[in-house]
């Protein structure tokens, strides 16, 4: 069986959108039960309560989770408040402990997804399980690793799969903790529309302010739901305090989400007209870019003849300043325009470099 053949009917057991929520980390039995109690009383429509039992951290000597004892607290949450439970597993021992504690949903974290050896170990430990298993995107923007992790699980007979889009690490500082890089996630969805994908706005944003917007944006492009970190007292959380929200805020966020209809048959004619227009504009863009690269070829020839270095920092400065100015004038995102011009400039350098080498 291949990934594209999976039915993933397990997701039909849950409401839409599928919201998984709870604290970043299990800290104590009272913290877990109090958070679950407030989520229940807030009428936040969540079927699955999450908590990190083992917490892989970037640096040592920090809080790395309470360990196996936290699984008992998850059991009490299920018994007292009726939620299904979910936690992250990062090695075979985690898997065995979570399965023994009858945790309902498991996920593989971004740091684990990036390592095929780790994923294989987890997959073998999960062999044949019927429990849903989510795979977070790897920390680096590598679609093949994400897909490969799914294939390793499927190879061990794990057929109830889901994907979690939690953003990608970047050296550059942006408004996000992990940049969404939506295109990679959408490429995954395009290849495997049968695999439910949920967004993790908590790890994308790294703060509370952008959670609602990122969650809605994901639903707008057809995601199944979201995993959101919630703590009864976020400021006192032992890990990732700044990105957790209270159960009351969680309930408000969920109540304001808009579910988008995937059936566009009612507006086929109008949609077709707009898509035809976009296709025409795209063709013009490609033609213009082709003309630009031909000019770059001529510039490359001149640089070669005069022994001039390809990359000119002053020229790149002019390009970025011009892009920023035009973005402001047109009301477009300056970040988007800069990305476009950076891609064009990089391709121009490649074109000129090929001339330097081959001619």
TrEMBL record:
- Keywords for the protein's UniProt record, in alphabetical order: Transferase
Domain Chorismate mutase: from-to ranges: 265-356
Q: Which InterPro entries does UniProt cross-reference here? A: Aldolase_TIM (IPR013785), Chorismate_II_sf (IPR036263), Class-I_DAHP_synthase (IPR052899), CM_dom_sf (IPR036979), CM_II_prokaryot (IPR002701), DAHP1/KDSA (IPR006218)
Please name the GO terms of the biological process aspect recorded for this protein, alphabetically.
Answer: chorismate metabolic process
The cross-references to Pfam families, in alphabetical order and at most eight, read:
CM_2, DAHP_synth_1
Q: What is its EC number?
A: 5.4.99.5
Q: Which GO terms describe its molecular function?
A: chorismate mutase activity; transferase activity
Q: Does the keyword Cell inner membrane apply?
A: no
Q: What class of enzyme is it?
A: isomerase
Q: What is this protein called?
A: chorismate mutase
